[in-house]
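hi! just following up on the protien thing from before. the input was this:
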Amino acid sequence: MDAALVRQARAGSQVAFARLVAIHEKPLRGFLRKSGWIDADDIAQEAFVAAWSHLPKLRDDTGFRAWLYGVAWKKALSQRRGAQRAAARDEAWRGEQDLEAAAAVAAEDRLALETALATLPEDQRACVALCLGQAWSHAEVSDALGIPLGTVKSHVTRGRERLLAVLGGSR
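and the predicted 3d structure came back as:
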């Protein structure tokens, strides 16, 4: 039954897609809730919107249900990662505020850090600033800077080591 509705929806039938939503909405939300997602309704809605716009990418019309659940699962994981990044940014911001509260020491440390960062090659410095300074994931930095993921990881590791050596040696 899904396959015929999928073919009609691919041809542009909103009615057919609405029928697919009606068939799969409740079970999908149930799956997400049982999987521990508090915001299952929002995730399911995002999954259906994504499914409608990416329906041409579905390879097998008979596999709609599995594909839809995969889309929903990826949306849920993406939402969790976004929440974790937001929490990390909030924590980093709070940490910055704490540092600024100790202005005299913080100013001296900040100057030392800026001086140490200046010793790093430009691309390594950018990776370190985003990953360590702004809590970006390696993958986000890779996408943003167009640098291979493995290179980003190497830059961050080597940059951190260099910063520790420079900052540790200057004290």
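The chain has eight helices and no strands.
The mean pLDDT is 87.
cheers
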